[in-house]
Amino acid sequence: MEIFSFEKIARNDRAAERYLLDSCSRAGPIECASCGAGKLYVIENGARRRCARCGRSFRPWSGRWIGEMKISARKLLWIVKLFELDLNASSISSETAVSYPTVLRALDVIRRSIAGAPARGRSARRSVAGNEPLIGSLGASIPGVQIYRTVADDAIRCILPMAGGYIVGIDRSLSYASVSYRGEELPIVDRGERFPFWRVYCSAGTGFWQYAKERLAKHHGVSDAKLPLYIGEMEYRYLNRGRRLFDLLVERLCGRIDPPTRSLPLISD
Ligand SMILES: [Zn+2]
Fold this sequence. Notes:
Blueprint: H1 3-9, H2 13-27, E1 40-43, E2 48-51, E3 57-58, H3 73-84, H4 89-96, H5 100-115, E4 135-138, E5 147-150, E6 156-162, E7 165-171, E8 178-181, E9 184-190, E10 198-202, H6 208-218, H7 227-239, H8 245-253
Antiparallel strand pairs: 1-2, 2-3, 4-5, 4-8, 6-7, 7-10, 8-9, 9-10
Helix pairs in contact: 2-3, 3-5, 3-8, 4-5, 5-7, 6-7
The protein binds zinc ion.
The site of zinc ion has 8 residues, from loops.
């Protein structure tokens, strides 16, 4: 959505709520958040609905990602717009006069909606148990001879599927020339220059790492648990480069929070 159309939908809270309500209806019928009934009464000037069957009242976007953001409709749209433009949390906070923690929470919801991750408060960590082992190749001490070792689970910081390949981060004390995972050899792409605690390996030829590394480096303070969400955001931006993200993001945010629909990034426990 270009800026002049955006200006119309975000001119005041009323217009913003109407826009979000339309977007929610397009994403799926508005039903009682408790019992699923479709017959609802509009109450409080449209701000809430009351279920004709069970009597519970709720905001029309209960159970959807935008309901997790706990922020007025107009500010919500602005945060999504500024996220689309790739501003960081502190710039978004100062541009919107929304507190920094609230902006962080809103961005977390946006990233979770992209990743299809569980609702806020639940960890995105996943065990690698049951998957194929990661095999590291050491530089040959004898010319022509490669030494392979299985990388211990507790040394693996992350195995992140992305753009048809993998990013693997392992403990910085281990310096394999490459690692193999699921039959694919991943060369080293970062020896601790951008990510001081990791050695990073990545599928060659996807172009994704070239795109993502500078952006990821901006977020070097991200915790292991949150990193999959940032990688998910980078992957989303990469796969949708050249497209306007705002409409796509609103469509996702207006969708219901369901169990994960895509394979989540894997993080070792
Ligand atoms: Zn109900």
